[in-house]
């Protein structure tokens, strides 16, 4: 696993106890990125469970079917939003864990691709530590496809692979934000809303690739995955617990 270009020696872990709202959660990650860019935030790891959201890519928003896709999301109880990062539509809800890693860095663009590899491998290792068969790599037909997606394998049916983690990155002059969405529980609503959204957008994909960690390991829950990821990060930097409320002042 190639080390990322990073200055972090200490990482403050901020556990967000409750969602700020679908749009507000997404926007707050960008706010933290801007604070880091201005030298107002040290390396920070923010963990939270989001409201039901479908985060569309900017290319999705330009397609003729976008408004129909957005209406389908609302009908199914998901808030449609357009994120600033690239990629295609991804869905998440309170059975998922969002990990926002923000760092100030003098040359943030230099390590962009290596971060995808490094943190993808780290997250796959964290999932393996709780008993999943997880690996890094795009699987055919996955939603929001990416070279460094993390997928899980059904040990009884090895040909069945499901996407468990999607990652995205936003880089500005002086800082970067690396965001990971880990689907842990309750995959059915995610599969349903993605099916409706991709159909409206006219995009091909394989709904069988949308799953959750507990589909492969029944009984696994978000707190267990969160602790595994925090433990994995402890091998990346010295961790210290912070109070999320201090970021809201």
Question: In total, how many beta strands?
Answer: 11
Radius of gyration: 17 Å
Distance between the termini: 38 Å
**Share of helical residues:** 25-40%
- Biggest sheet overview: 8 strands, mixed
H/E element order: EHEEHEEEHEEEEHHHE
Low-confidence stretches: 1-5
What's the average pLDDT? 94
Q: Hey, roughly how much beta strand do the residues contain?
A: 25-35%
Give the strand line-up of the largest sheet. Answer: 7-8-9-10-6-2-1-11
Class inferred from helices and paired strands? alpha/beta
> How many alpha or pi helices?
6
Quaternary: single chain
Shape: globular
Structure commentary:
It contains 6 helices and 11 strands. The chain starts with 9 loop residues before the first strand and ends in an 8-residue tail after the last strand. The protein is globular. It has an 8-stranded mixed beta sheet with strand order 7-8-9-10-6-2-1-11, with helices on both faces. A 3-stranded mixed beta sheet has the order 4-3-5, covered by helices on one side. Helix content is 30%, strand content 27%. It has 249 residues and is α/β, with parallel strands linked by helices. Mean pLDDT is 94; it is low at 1-5. Strand 3 (53-56), helix 2 (66-75) and strand 4 form a beta-alpha-beta unit. The chain has helices spanning 22-37, 66-75, 112-129, 188-201, 213-216, 222-233, and strands spanning 10-15, 44-48, 53-56, 79-82, 90-92, 96-104, 134-136, 150-154, 157-172, 175-183, 238-241.
